[in-house]
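Saturday, quiet lab. Running sequence design on the structure tokens for the scaffold JK sent over.
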């Protein structure tokens, strides 16, 4: 079948390549001419996405995948249209849907009768029916008569998108009477994946928000428990290990907040007004406060931070993936600077320009002689660092480091909810 994937970013491009690898003709549509040209050369613009380089090269070589900036023209030849356009929040904390609205308008101009449109992007409840489906009628076709619409959220982790595409059940919910059935059949055929068909697009939208809010609240709970552990000078790691030995408990790992495209964003889709959201708002508040809490702990330990040299390692939102969206590294920078510290940033995955774009002064080589080293994203590249020469105090912002190894070389260790090494 002919398939259009609208938006070939970190989710859309692996999806397009995977569909093309199964023998379908796929058009990857994007507003970036540079991205389109790169893909059409068979070059991978997302090198840290496992398995994508070979999959993309082969899909382009066989002619099964072509990228284009002409969305309407591509859609005119397609039976199925998948939307993977990113949605963020605006300055007020509400969902910014403008890019998705523009994509829907482009698709409407070329939509062929009988087509199936599926929105993959996580959305506030009701958005697919109220906001997006009507925009697809802009070309004159009518929902339910001429085309169908469904919502089917991505359930993927950056860095392993191709694996996750078939690892978890695909959730679908239709807007019109046939939309859900058609979407379920499409994903079973195209990906060979298990499908959970829900009663409506709204149910499917809420299911994805539920996943995100659950994780955000669980992390918030872990962060609160870590702060209690600090009061009593116990190690939250052993507390969580003990609690999770009981099958009804699944506490997550505390840290300096939550970053990325998903977890810090999706709770705000509930907070903006779609039903009661006190817990979602509270979880965001707790997690957003963690960078300041950790900076204060360091300040109290050292008797002040004014003039202290601090380096923050790992500026991406998680290890070994070069994505800086909503990264808490910038929150740590703000908090340490506010307390008078001189702060540098270092990331093994970013250029100096990329470090500066986040507001950091790049850390000069050699990486040594700091008062404090904060490890925000524990990239594999940092495992070989000699902490003894880097800094006298190592702050483990994700409780991901080997405490004993750090102490063995003579550096002090501080985790989140973990006792500080003796001086």
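Result came back. Writing it out in full:
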């Amino acid at each position: 079948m002919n398939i259009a994937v609208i938006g070939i970013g970190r989710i859309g491009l692996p999806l397009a390549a995977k569909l093309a690898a199964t023998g379908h003709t796929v058009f990857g549509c994007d507003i970036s001419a540079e991205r389109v040209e790169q893909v059409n050369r068979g070059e991978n613009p997302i090198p840290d996405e496992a398995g994508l380089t070979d999959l993309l090269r082969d899909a382009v070589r066989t002619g099964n995948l072509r990228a284009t900036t002409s969305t309407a023209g591509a859609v005119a030849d397609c039976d199925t249209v998948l939307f993977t356009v990113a949605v963020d929040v605006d300055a007020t904390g509400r969902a910014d849907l403008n890019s998705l609205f523009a994509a829907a308008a482009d698709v409407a101009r070329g939509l062929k009768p009988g087509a199936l449109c599926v929105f993959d992007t996580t959305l506030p409840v009701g958005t697919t029916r109220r906001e997006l489906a009507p925009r697809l009628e802009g070309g004159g076709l009518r929902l339910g008569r001429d085309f169908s619409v469904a919502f089917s959220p991505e359930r993927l982790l950056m860095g392993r998108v191709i694996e996750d595409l078939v690892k978890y059940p695909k959730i679908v919910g239709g807007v019109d009477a046939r939309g859900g059935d058609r979407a379920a059949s499409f994903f079973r055929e195209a990906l060979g994946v298990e499908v959970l068909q829900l009663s409506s697009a709204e149910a499917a939208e809420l299911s994805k928000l539920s996943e995100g809010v659950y994780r955000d609240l669980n992390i918030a709970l872990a962060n609160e428990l870590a702060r209690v552990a600090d009061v009593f000078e116990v190690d939250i790691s052993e507390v969580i290990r003990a609690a999770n030995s009981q099958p009804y408990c699944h506490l997550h790992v505390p840290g300096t907040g939550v970053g990325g495209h998903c977890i810090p964003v999706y709770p705000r889709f509930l907070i903006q007004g779609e039903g009661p959201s006190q817990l979602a708002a509270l979880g965001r508040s707790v997690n957003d406060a963690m960078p300041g809490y950790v900076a204060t702990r360091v300040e109290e330990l050292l008797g002040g931070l004014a003039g202290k040299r601090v380096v923050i390692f790992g500026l991406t939102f998680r290890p070994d993936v070069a994505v800086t969206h909503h990264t808490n590294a910038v929150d740590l920078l703000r908090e340490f600077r506010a307390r008078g510290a001189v702060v540098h940033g270092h990331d093994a995955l970013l250029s100096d320009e990329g470090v500066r774009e986040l507001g950091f002064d790049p850390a000069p080589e050699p990486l040594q002689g700091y008062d404090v080293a904060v490890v925000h994203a524990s990239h594999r590249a940092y495992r070989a660092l000699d902490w003894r020469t880097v800094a006298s105090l190592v702050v483990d912002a994700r409780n991901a480091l080997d405490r004993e190894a750090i102490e063995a070389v003579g550096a002090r260790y501080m985790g989140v909810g973990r006792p500080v090494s003796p001086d």
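Notes for JK: Residues 201-232 form the longest helix (32 residues). The chain has a mean pLDDT of 95. Ask whether to fix the surface positions before the next round.
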